[in-house]
Amino acid sequence: MTRDVRLSTRTRSDEIRLWRHGELPLPEWMPSHMIGDIALNGTFEVGTDGGHVRVHPGNTVIERHGSVCVCPTDEAPAYLESLKRTASAALNNIGPGKSSRFGTGSTQSKGRKHKTITEPQRPRYPAPIGCFPSIEWVHITRLSIDSTYQRSTDNSASRRLIASIAAKFDWRLCAPLVVSRRADDVLTIIDGQHRWMAVCQRDDIPQLPCCVFRYENMKEEARMFIVANRARKPINRLDDYYAALAAADEDALEIEQLVRAAGLRIARSTSFAGWRPGEIAFTSAIAKTIQRFGAPIASGALTNLAVAFHDQKLTHGGALFGALVRIMSKPCPDFDPDRLLSVLSTRNADEWGKCVTGISSGNEREVALRAAIMAAYESVPVKA
User: Fold this and answer.
1) What is the fold, at CATH topology level, of the domain defined by 134-231?
2) Is 185 left (phi over 0), alpha (psi -120 to 50) or beta?
3) Could you give the residue range(s) of every CATH 3.90.1530.10 domain in the chain?
């Protein structure tokens, strides 16, 4: 059954009609807005001012002034209220030249200068490119991949990613796939193939949410694939660390505890130009040290950095940490921690960093610094 909601306006052009998907019979005004046939899952497309939109069960179609829009049924009342407010505003507008006849609701003293306040002008943008997508739930068997431009998944990294998504599938992380609807109605995935392939390994997820677009040809699909992937900004290691810390990840919490206990802090930026004294960024190295040698070795190396280079900018902190881990994880005979700290304090952090000038490899930098530190260590006379 259809429901008609009418505003108290002067003409029938402001009549608002709505229909909720699932109500029968279909109202007489609906077919004129429908595009194509009703799909097997009961969905269908309608033409809106912004392009084609697919109507799903639970959606409400609203018609006004001969145009339609689609929204979730629970949002329809709020949308109708906004239409009523728009209509009321139009009726209450008395227009220029009538204020003396009807009054403006406020007075202005004669002879008083009125200061005009101009709001900042909004920037003008060119019209959006393309049409609105159709938001659809698509059965996974209807989706496909075009290997002409899609990246290969025949590699260990992709296989691990697909297996991980399949094993720990989380709807909260499943953004809609970007899909192209071709002229022959084939649905080709542009972005989201790893999610699709992961779901195909399961037997309890028959369909996925998709943003379905229409492109001129396969070349345009490939161009969109490139744009989508190049525009995606990868998360850096520090953003990843702080996100893990906020999520109470056990590894991140352990790193934070060790770093804070040593008197250091994790920087927020990967650019050392903005670092303050005592800030470090080698979270991955700390995690690997904990995993390989245990928390005491990581804690000892961090504490030596904090004490030896107190209030200094640790530009070469990662290499110094790695060198200290190498020294402390395989100590020389009669190793003396106090003697090591004393040797480290004979130079500032930048001076130790000069020992690795021109060396780009992380491992080689650590090896070179270890050799320099141990050479200085061996040159110090042993106290009797």
Assistant:
1) 3.90.1530
2) left
3) 134-231
